[in-house]
Write a structure and sequence with these properties.
By secondary structure, the protein is mainly alpha-helical. The chain has three domains: 41 residues, no CATH class; 98 residues, DNA polymerase, domain 1; 186 residues, Intergrase catalytic core (hpI Integrase, Chain A, Orthogonal Bundle). The protein is 47% helix and 7% strand. The chain is built from 15 helices and eight strands. The protein has a three-stranded antiparallel β-sheet with strand order 1-2-3, with helices on one face. The longest helix is centred in the middle third of the chain and has 20 residues. The protein is elongated.
Length: 390
């Protein structure tokens, strides 16, 4: 068990006759020794140190002044250190950390040594134009501009910048479709069901079951990959699946996915394991692949993992996607991604029930403005749909 860092002490710097405290290897001079002002500054720094889990965020003290100007580079460094503690899920960094790094790269390259307070709307638009020139898609650029503004909002919150610096950046309107040279991206299309059927013979049994299950319940890939027996509850002709990890959990929302008879039949062979174990194991896929290719002689210098080395492992979005796309090439059909299965199911449900409400109920509302009063009705509608289709 790691020890908590002890509280840095208030000390006397005799050569200068000043009070000092050393935090993270850096001396912070507080003023004349034993003066009320020095004790006040010490208490404030320790409060900041405790709030940040035994460290000080970069540039927390002293605050920038005219002769200690906060540069854009310094602001980026301080903000990213904060982002590394915020954008973490279940002990692992989320993809947002990489997105922030990508967005701030353009700002750093153009304005790194510029005082942060001088980075205004024109500078933001210049950085955005650099993103366009680099071939970034319009929707991605708008998200990156929001991330840059979010950094400035954090700087205001931490009293590193004045509020007007952030307010000025809010004046920059997002890029509109058809009004810019930025690349456009199309909507993710549904995958034809015949393409789904074509890949199943070329997939290991766990991955084939994941594909079938995802198509039936309209879940996201990570929700299928993370399914465990302990997450399931039996109902009246359907099962309810409460994912332990899902996209909107950081918004304090709960998610429930309904499995109908067809989905239950697909899943049942993969429930013969510990309640906390993942239903779909890479170890079983590797064992299947080894058995299928047992006539081949293994290469002497092969570094491939053995089935037993995959115990307790979980499929990732990358490994799931690669397995499906490899199967597409073997089946000699256009390559598609597991993400498209969710769109396919939405189209099927909407066509069968003649309204979008049924598809929303099964797939789960993504609009956070939907109030909790609709949750019970949607879950009931989802159950009705899945009794008939899933």
């Amino acid at each position: 068990m790691s020890r908590k860092p002890s509280q840095p002490g208030y000390r006397h710097h005799k050569a200068r006759d000043l009070a000092v405290v050393t935090i993270d290897g850096k001396n912070h001079y507080l003023g004349p020794w034993q003066s009320p002002e020095s004790h006040e500054k010490y208490a404030a720094l320790i409060a900041e140190w405790k709030r940040n889990g035994g460290t000080l965020p970069a540039l927390a003290a002293p605050a920038p002044t005219d002769d200690n100007t906060l540069t854009v580079n310094a602001l980026i460094l301080a903000y990213f250190k904060f982002a590394q503690t915020l954008y973490v899920k279940h002990g692992e960094p989320t993809s947002e950390q990489g997105c922030i790094r990508q967005a701030l790269r353009f700002v750093r390259q153009l304005y790194g040594t510029t005082p942060a307070a001088e980075f205004g709307p024109r500078a933001l638009k210049n950085a955005r134009h650099a993103m366009v020139t680099a071939g970034r898609a319009r929707k991605s650029i708008n998200k990156d501009v929001h991330r840059i503004r979010r950094m400035y909002r954090w700087g205001v919150e931490e009293e590193l910048l004045s509020p007007d610096t952030y307010q000025k950046l809010r004046a920059v309107a997002p890029l509109a479709k058809g009004k810019t040279a930025a690349r456009e991206t199309g909507k993710l299309p549904p995958v034809p069901t015949e393409y789904v059927a074509a890949v199943l013979p070329h997939l290991p049994p766990p991955v084939a079951a994941m594909v079938q299950l995802q198509l039936l319940i309209g879940a996201r890939p990570q929700e299928v990959m993370g399914l465990r027996p302990c997450d399931l509850t039996e109902g009246d002709g359907v099962w309810y699946y409460a994912p332990s990890v899902h996209k909107t959990e950081h918004l304090d929302r709960e998610k429930c996915i309904v499995l109908g008879p067809l989905a239950i039949a697909v899943l049942r062979p993969f429930l013969d394991r510990k309640p906390e174990a993942y239903c779909f194991s890479p170890a079983e896929s590797v064992a299947w692949r080894h058995a299928t290719n047992r006539k081949r002689e293994p290469k002497p210098d092969s570094t491939a993992m053995k089935p037993e080395e995959y115990v307790n492992a979980q499929y990732t979005r990358h490994s799931y996607r690669v397995a499906v796309q490899r199967a597409c090439r073997k089946a000699k059909i256009p390559v598609w991604s597991p993400r498209q299965l969710r769109h396919t199911r939405a189209s099927q449900i909407r066509a069968a029930f003649g309204n979008l409400e049924a598809a929303k109920a099964v797939l789960g509302h993504t609009d956070t403005r939907v109030t909790e009063m609709y949750a019970e009705r949607d879950l009931k509608l989802a159950a009705d749909v899945m009794r008939k289709m899933g």
